[in-house]
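Annual report, structural modelling task.

Input specification for the glutamine complex:
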Amino acid sequence: MSDPADLTISEAGAAMRAGALTSVDLTEAVLQRARVTESELHAFLTLDQAGAKSAAEAADASLAAGDDAGPLHGIPIALKDNMCTKGIETTAASQILSGWVPPYNATVVDRLAAAGAVVVGKTNLDEFAMGSSTENSAYGTTRNPWDTDTVPGGSSGGSAAAVAAGSAMGGFGSDTGGSIRQPAALCGVVGLKPTYGLVSRYGLIAFASSLDQIGPFARSVDDAVVLLEAIAGFDIHDATSIRGEVPNFRGSLNEGVAGLKIGIVTELSTTGIDPEVKAAVSRTVDRLSDAGADVVDVSLPSCEYGLSAYYLIAPAECSANLARFDGVRFGHRAEGLTTEDMMAATRAEGFGPEVIRRILLGTYALSAGYYDAFYGQAQRVRTLIRRQFSAAYEDVDILVSPTSPTTAFPIGDRTADPIAMYYADVCTIPVNLTGDPGISVPVGLDSKGLPIGFQLMAPALGEERLLQVAKVVEDQAVFTDRAALATSEVAS
Ligand code: GLN
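The model returned the following structure:
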């Protein structure tokens, strides 16, 4: 058999149930890949080798006893380090949370345990999920396994890189403005942001609560479905969690696209998009049309204001959410003569420059006299975008665009220019503002050999249709390349 670390989740599950592979073998293969690649990649902030081994042993024992928890049973996965894990340090890649060990699990972590998954570790991110390259981590940059001189995207760059390199079979990230889909695109894997409220945010360290959503990274659309199924559903601990039955995500997974109407969003597919990305997107659209879809152009003019609205709303919410990090309850505490001095010094020492910039931006946007002109106006733009998307979905089933305007960029290229960095999410932000689901599927490589992602978007709770079309995109693109750091010569 080839290296088990390279199997898909369904292949590994089948091999385990046929007695050809154990979870311990599989977990060991994935950890071995991590041991070989981590010195270059730095995808993980914590690699929990001992915990993963004992979880894998338990998974093998329960499977042998006939207690099968389903398709994730015994599968090694990675979690972004902004999801609370009881007993395992959780830092959100910030100095301010250095050494903080949560006393409880995020709901997704409990659900993954119930599904039999094996957690191999906690992955790197931009501090508090603010960034598009993972360069804003307080603990060093993650590198892209396709080309280690380039970024893996962000903010969930560690999970994307781990899945692309084979140091996890599936991963989880959070997406506030594109932090799952953009790194998935740059690392050549599938990344899904579910409908807002479909997955519990309980135990996710909050960035911008009206936008944050947890979702999976996978090597195939089928695997993304399995990972999503394990975490979706109502949670009493999250006030924004959607009540009711979890929709069936796989009902029409293999039904193709014949008869479906697909809209290319003009405003997200033309200006500022790299020509090679544009070409790959138009090839993909042609294939969808060959497969029987009716493809049309759709204009959503309000998308042009998405980035500006996001960079008022997200910082405004973050300035409130991050007020809790004051040296009293969590992590780092600085010296100070008075409580106020201590709090000010803790925050000055604990937060990195991008987080400070966001808090300042947010505080300004919310301040008396400016509130209506900035925050209020951004909320109005958000409503406008939501209305334009709803109107578009009266006519089309799925909207598409590039995921990211460019492929992976060199490390250091945009660190001095926040606006250039923010532009990385121009295509992904709109559906965070609407709350709708979006997915990135790899569709090819550019002339430098770097992956290109194709974004599909659907109305709220439209995951079934979204995955159905994503599957056709994946089949038609036949994206079988693997990252350089995942190939056997490097990895073995
Ligand atoms: N890059 C965007 C930002 O910096 C999105 C981050 C995210 O989705 N967490 O805010």
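The two ends are 14 Å apart (CA to CA).
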